Amino acid sequence: MHPTAMEVLPTLRRSLLVALALLLTACPRPSRTPPAGGDTGEDVPTGDPFPKRPAVEARKDATADAALAQARQTAQATPDKKKAAEAYLSVRKAYPATTAGQDALYQAGVLFFESKDYVNARKSFNELLFENPLYNQAEDAKRKLALSAMEVGAYRDAYQTLSSLAERAEGAEREQLLRDAARAAEGAGLYGQSLTLAVEQAGQAKTQQERDAAVARVEALVEGRADFVDIARVAEGLPASNPAWPVLTFKLARVYYHLREWTRLEETLNRFLAEAPQSPFAPQARELLARATRRVEAKPKTVGVLLPMTGRYQPIGEAVLRGIQLGLEGSDIELVVKDTQGDVNKTGQAMEQLAFDDGAIAVLGPLLGDDSKRAALVAEELQLPLLTMTRQEGVTDLGPYVFRNMLTNAAQADAIADYAINVKGYKKFALLYPNIPYGVELADSFWDQVTERGGVVRGAERYSHDQTTFTTEAKKLVGRYYLEDRGDYVEGVRDLQGENLDAFRRRKALEKVKSGVEPIIDFEAIFMPDDWRRVSLVAPALAVEDIVTNACDPRDLERIRKTTGKKELKTVTLFGANQWSSPKGRSGLPELIERGGKFVTCSVYVDGFFVDSQRPATRTFVRKYREAYKQETGKDPGLLEAIGYDSGRMLRQLVEKKEGGPRTRAQMRDALSNLKDFDGATGRTSFNEKREAVKQLFLLSIDNKGVTEINVDKEREKAASGGSGS
User: Fold this and answer.
1) Beta strand pairing call for 299-307 and 573-576
2) Average pLDDT, stretch 372-393?
3) Predicted model pTM
4) Residue 1, pLDDT score
5) In its keyword annotation, does this UniProt entry include Signal (predicted)?
6) Quick one: CATH architecture of 299-406+611-695?
7) What is the DSSP annotation of 254-299?
8) DSSP state string for 78-92
9) Can you list the positions of beta strands (E) in 522-603?
10) Distance CA 255, CA 296 (A)
11) Which end of the chain is more exposed for a tag (fewer CB within 10 A), N or C?
12) Strands, E, within 378-502: which ranges?
């Protein structure tokens, strides 16, 4: 059954935001046309703009009539129509409240109109019709007034007058008025009114030429001018016999397609093909109907992949794909790989192809933040499960068909805070981080996690992303930068005032006072979410300010005690995030250790994958990867390869279930939602209620021999039993 306008319009309004977000149709202008059953509140010209009764009671006057006759003779003898019009206006000026004065005003308007002086023509006719809307030539005056208004760009006034005249006209005159009114409405941007008039003209056309012209105007209006609501309103109740019906109906079907209103789309297309099987749009309509039908036809063993396989992000796309292929090795699952090229629009198109053309039961990827947002929007609209591998926060909030398996900033902050507070027993922290999104987001998340667990942040310092020296930040952390706020420093300077010292000795004495100011280390740990290169520069700067970070080395601690003469040392643990992971240098140790030396030993950082982990699932993955790709790439696997491997194996495990895997996309979504304790290379994984992968991350400790994985469970048991976690 064909939907009514009252049913269609609310649907379109509800879905408009989604359509705009996907950028699948031209951006429509706001409608100025009140839809059926309601007022939009727009200022739309309606009705006759002129009074219903004369504002001036004109009288018959013999002298005025004689003057009008003289003006007529003068006008006929004058070839210049503007000068002739002035002759009539002189009569109007001399005898304003007479019938002759009104006749003179009309004649002047006609002459101005004929001479294309539309401004004065409009002025004359407006004045005449305001005084006497019942003037015997009022209809002609109104038409010329409207055409004059159109010529000077006053399209709204022209439309108002012409549409009013057309309501009372018949035959050829009405048809011409409708054409003029449509032109005025389009000029004024009143595309809803213009569409209504064009459709009416198409239905009343007498010749094929007139019909084709009207239909062409309708087609031009529905393609990017008239908005969704206008199209639905005009299409409502329009008989299929109207030549414009196929244009409107097919456009409405395309709107439903873009808005994912599948039921209405199929109803509209089926009616279209039944009523207009020979329409030029019929082949497209059949393809659109077939495409809509295919959206629910999933192939249980076809998995789509969205990755940047060319362009600047090609290396990371290839890394993830190697992991996916390794995870599916030996299975009969068909991978359909789409190259997103790191382009948002190509990502959206590829997602639609996987749904409509390839029949994918689920999709893996993308990686990049904006690509993942677009893919997630389309996934939700087409109800196609998407397991994305982006770090973009909040991507799973876009709908129940969107999942994420990737190390996030929030997960890292949570893991470090949990270990530092609940295992190590620390309560007081400082933050030192770069002013880039990665650093700021991690610092903010860590601060929140510390506060939630009852800890406190004693200090926070931010530095530029390209900074290479960190003396200032280190001094600020321990209270040695703003010395005028330190009582011990102020007192030391005051003592110098009474001594009779020359400039050199005074300077040396002042430097001694400064160096004697003790650092205020009121924190037990420092969180530094930055790249390993920068960390290797920051850590030594902290040591200069007497922040002892290598607390796990007894020999080094003893050396520091002897050097400083302090028996009790205040030690601080450095914590970091996944960008602390570094490649191995010439010595075979990670470059972070080669560059940072003793200043980074005893530190702890978190990552989503550790190639030297002793976890069985991780070791299995590393062995398989080395056998398959080490000769080709010359490198060990990293987080991207491991995430791709686990994501591929998750889908494989669900598809190859002994009792039968998911047959539909909805079943695949439910299966992913219920996935628990999947034992993968990146940890034992489950999806929480927000469809985020939850897993035990890798806590890694640094010593002078390299990086080792911390057995968090054992340390937690030790801490719970009263043993020292330090």
Assistant:
1) unpaired
2) 94
3) 0.69
4) 41
5) yes
6) 3-Layer(aba) Sandwich (3.40)
7) HHHHHTT-HHHHHHHHHHHHHH-TTSTTHHHHHHHHHHHHHTT--E
8) -S-HHHHHHHHHHHH
9) 525-527, 573-576
10) 19
11) N
12) 386-388, 402-404, 428-434, 456-463
Distance CA 244, CA 217 (A): 10
Specify the CATH architecture of the domain 62-295: Alpha Horseshoe (1.25)
**Residue given tokens 């305001």 in the structure block:** 130
In this structure, which long-range contacts are made by residues 656-664, counting pairs with CB atoms below 8 Å and at least 24 apart in sequence?
A: 656/331, 661/300, 662/300, 662/361, 663/298, 663/300, 664/296, 664/298, 664/361
List, in order, residues 6 or more apart from 68 with CB less than 8 Å away. 88, 91, 100, 103, 104
Q: What are phi and psi of 56, to 5 degrees?
A: -130, 130
Least confident of 41-50, 399-408, 427-436: 41-50
- Provide mean pLDDT across the span 408-413: 96
What crossing angle do the helices spanning 409-418 and 437-452 adopt, rounded to 10°?
40
* Gap between the Cα atoms of 674 and 504, Å rounded: 76
Give the list of residues 6+ apart from residue 459 with CB closer than 8 angstroms, or none.
430, 431, 476, 477, 522, 523
For domain 409-480+519-607, which CATH number applies: 3.40.50.2300, 3.60.130.10, 3.30.750.24, 3.30.565.10? Answer: 3.40.50.2300
| Alpha-carbon gap, residue 228 to 9, rounded angstroms | 8
- The yes-or-no verdict on residue 726 having pLDDT over 70 is no
The residue written with tokens 């600020």 in the block is: 476
Are the C-beta atoms of 232 and 13 separated by less than 8 Å?
no
- The average pLDDT across 594-604 equals 93
Q: Which residues are 678's β-sheet partners?
A: 685
What pLDDT is attached to residue 565? 63
Task: Tell me the pLDDT band of 679, cut-offs 50, 70 and 90.
Answer: very high
User: Are the CB atoms for 100 and 116 separated by under 8 Å?
Assistant: no
615 or 225, higher pLDDT: 615
**476 contacts: CB under 8 Å, gap ≥ 6:** 459, 461, 482
Q: What is the DSSP string of 62-128?
A: HHHHHHHHHHHHHHHH-S-HHHHHHHHHHHHHHSTTBHHHHHHHHHHHHHHHHTT-HHHHHHHHHHH
The string of pLDDT tens digits covering residues 179-200 is 898 889 888 888 888 899 889 9
CA-closest candidate to residue 555, choices 724, 703, 700: 703
> How big is the chain, counted in residues?
726
Helices (H), ranges, 389-436: 409-418
Query: Token pair for residue 601?
Result: 């030993």
Q: Are 62-295 and 299-406+611-695 equal in CATH topology?
A: no
**Over the stretch 137-179, which tens digit does the pLDDT of each residue have?**
999 999 999 999 999 999 999 999 998 898 888 888 888 888 8
